[in-house]
Amino acid sequence: DAGVDVEDFQACIDSGNQANALQRNLATASTAGVRVTPTFFINGRMVEGNLPLGSFQQEIEQALES
């Protein structure tokens, strides 16, 4: 449904070419305290979850004020 070529995607997964990059990203996220997706950092403040646009706007406005 997303327009992804399933065969190409599966070949990429099977190749393991991105495994090291994935492990590095997971380690970085873990070190930063990320526990859920999506997680965003706005001016160093962790914002977790699928929040409405208004919530992001508030976070950004607060970051700009500080």
Give an overview of the whole structure.
With 66 residues, this protein is an alpha+beta fold. It has three helices and two strands, in the order H-H-E-E-H. It has a two-stranded antiparallel ribbon. Strand 1 (39-42) and strand 2 (45-48) form a beta hairpin.
Write the layout of secondary structure elements.
Layout: H1 6-15, H2 19-31, E1 39-42, E2 45-48, H3 53-65
Antiparallel strand pairs: 1-2
Largest sheet: 2 strands, antiparallel
Q: Characterize the overall form.
A: elongated
| Computed structural class | alpha+beta
Unreliable runs? none
What order do the helices and strands follow? HHEEH
Helix share bin: 40-55%
Q: In total, how many beta strands?
A: 2
Strand order of the largest sheet: 1-2
What's the mean pLDDT score? Answer: 93
Tally of helical runs: 3
- The proportion of residues in beta strands is 5-15%
Q: Compute the separation of the termini in Å.
A: 43 Å
Radius of gyration: 17 Å
